Amino acid sequence: MGLLDKVHQFQTARQLMNAGLYNYFRPIESAQESTVRYNGREVIMLGSNNYLGLTNHPRVKAAAKAALEKYGSGCAGSRFLNGTLDVHVELERKLADLVGKERALVFSTGFFANLGTISTMVGRNETVVVDRTDHASIYDGCRMSYGNVRKYRHQDMEHLDYVLEKERGTDKLIVVDGIFSMEGDIAKLPEIVALAKKHDTLVMVDDAHGVGVMGAQGRGTCNHFGLTDDVHLIVGTFSKSLASVGGFVASDADTIHYIQHLARVMIFSASPPPASVASVSAAVDVMLEEDWRHEALWRNTHIMMERLQAAGFDTGPSETPIIPIVVGDDTTAYRMCVRCWEEGVFVNPIVSPAVEPGNALLRLSLMATHTEDEIHKAMDILTKVGREQGIISSKLQA
Ligand SMILES: Cc1ncc(COP(=O)(O)O)c(C=O)c1O
Fold first, then answer.
1. Sign of CA dihedral 371, 376, 377, 383
2. Which of 114, 176, 237 to mutate to test ligand 1, by most ligand atoms within 8 A of the CB atom?
3. What share of the chain is helix, strand, coil (3-state, %, to 5)?
4. Which of 24, 113, 134, 312 pairs as cysteine with 392 (C-beta 3.0–4.6 A)?
């Protein structure tokens, strides 16, 4: 039946369901806390991007409620026309200040922020240069642009130099994740900026996982390296540390002026609703005031990393609260996730094409609000399941 052939032939998910290895679209029955309720049971959450633990914070929720009362449930239009509220503008000021840029522009998702920014900034006969493991939304932004797309091997600076050299004579933008979303390594920003200068190229950092996590008070990866002025565009999302949904790009006033009048996802799609926007605004305030969250997030990260490595797990290149456990084949990743859940830990399987085939992993992520007790309990379960599945040897100390 033509178009429907592929629909009927798609069996991958059903096969996993039939084998009891399906780990997707799992309905959680509680708030996104360090322990959540899933399938009627309490499980320790090691699969959330709620790094600072703000999604259930009283001030964040109160701000959302107040905005809902004042402005209603939605804006019924795009930012460009009737969908901009004073709270959008206020949040943009706060975000620009947070990441150290002149202006910021709020989009309905982080995905849209990448689509809108890359597709407007890179035009015909211009080139966008991406790290091979950049996020899917960066790739889709590249597809939407009319420019050339060139990839360099993950974190390989010699290769980046080579790719930039080959593009000599064209105007270029390097786009890189601040923290890589699956493996938790940090972009080599000092080297990238130096190469960008050498090849007269602009840099954009997608700091979806860096805002709230990296830099002074969680101001992001560019702040961490002291390179805010050398990175022309900083993208962020609200769906991780900032406890809601939406995204932004920050840059100089002229660049933001240009993007806001030309990005199709800004002009032809509805603006983020008032409750979300107000909750992000409150989340930024809480993040800056409650310094302990940032510290607790890193303390928890170090405890977890040390225990995982002592138990013999391969944590890949991670240096951040995103910690992979490399398990190899996809089926082992699925099986480990199911077993972890049965034992009381929620983790996510990451399989190809999100990672290279044969490099499947469990993606763990820490929150500021995990207690040490939760981390140790989770570790005991991971160790038990890891041994059972042959990922680690039973001889090593956990
Ligand atoms: C690196 C990166 N960029 C962009 C996004 C998209 O953000 P959002 O979920 O807000 O659309 C994500 C989220 O998965 C991400 O990990």
1. positive
2. 237
3. 45, 15, 40
4. 312
Question: What string of DSSP letters covers 58-112?
Answer: HHHHHHHHHHHHHH-S---SBTTTT---HHHHHHHHHHHHHHT-SEEEEESSHHH
181 a catalytic residue: yes
Select from 288, 314, 315 the least CA-distant residue to 301.
315
Q: Residue 353 has what pLDDT?
A: 85
Between the CA of 139 and the centroid of ligand 1 the distance, in Å, is 12
- Enter the DSSP assignment of 268: S
Tell me the C-alpha distance between 286 and 187, whole Å.
Answer: 27
263 C-alpha vs ligand 1 centroid, how far in Å?
A: 18
Ligand 1 pocket, Cβ-based, cut-off 6 angstroms: 109-111, 114, 135, 137, 177, 181, 206, 208-209, 237, 239, 247
For residue 395, indicate whether it is catalytic: no
- The residues near 24 (Cβ < 8 Å, ≥ 6 apart) are 13
Distance 2 CA to ligand 1 centre (A): 34
Q: What is the mean pLDDT of the chain?
A: 96
Question: Among positive and negative, which fits the CA dihedral 101, 103, 107, 111?
Answer: negative
The pLDDT > 70 percentage for the chain reads 99
Domains annotated for the chain, with CATH where assigned, are: 13-45+291-388 (3.90.1150.10), 58-289 (3.40.640.10)
- Using a pLDDT cut of 90, give the percent of the chain over it: 96
- What are the Cα distances from residue 249, in Å, to 31, 211, 214, 320? 28, 12, 17, 23
From residue 281, alpha-carbon distances to 52, 66, 287, 288, 383 in Å are: 14, 12, 10, 11, 39
- Bridging pattern class, strands 172-177 and 127-131: parallel
- Give me the amino acid identity at 161: D
pLDDT tens digits for range 330-369: 999 999 999 999 999 999 999 988 888 899 999 999 999 9
CA 173 to chain CA centroid, Å, is 20
What pLDDT, in 10s, does the model give residues 150-205? 999 999 999 999 999 999 999 999 999 999 999 999 999 999 999 999 999 999 99
Q: Is 159 a catalytic residue?
A: no
